[in-house]
Amino acid sequence: MKQFFEKYRNLILYGLIGGSCALLDFIVYSGLCSIIPFLVANVISTHCGIFCSFFLNRKYNFKVEDNTLRRFFSFYTVGLLGLAVSEGLLFLMVNYFGIEKIVSKLITVVAVALLQFVFITFKTKKNG
Q1: Residue 59 CA to chain centroid, in angstroms?
Q2: Contact, 23 vs 52, CB < 8 A?
Q3: Taking a C-beta distance cutoff of 8 angstroms, is the pair 108, 89 a contact?
Q4: SS3 state of residue 58
């Protein structure tokens, strides 16, 4: 078991951190939806998730301290692309398909996470 964890440490931590930050995103969104428009709530909650994920991965997973600003803007750009997809999906699901806002957010969190994983995987393979 120890060898397995050591071999897949970064992937496991990335998943745990990503899941935790996605949960934070969802909780913030759920709380804000009752007081502000759902698309504005999504922008705020997604930013909470992006910042959470970057700083936790930087400190505990990849343990890198150099080029923080450059690394952040690269990570943030991918996060903003995810936000754009999330906003579009939420708008369509709530306004055109009549899916409840909270259920729509759950769907978009999963969809965006999968898209970002594929994007990062292909980018890594292309650069690596």
Answers
A1: 17
A2: no
A3: yes
A4: helix
Give CA separation, 69 vs 55, 63, 65, 85, in Å. 12, 15, 10, 24
Name the DSSP letter for residue 60: I
pLDDT in tens, 60-76: 877 777 888 888 998 89
Residue 43's domain spans which residues?
2-127
Number of domains in the chain: 1
- Cβ atoms of 94 and 37 within 8 Å: the answer is no
- Are the C-beta atoms of residues 14 and 61 closer than 8 Å to each other? yes
pTM: 0.84
Q: Is 3 exposed, middle or buried (0-12, 13-18, 19+ CB in 10 A)?
A: exposed
Phi, psi of 97 (to 5 degrees): -105, -5
pLDDT of residue 18: 87
C-alpha span between 114 and 108 (Å, rounded): 10
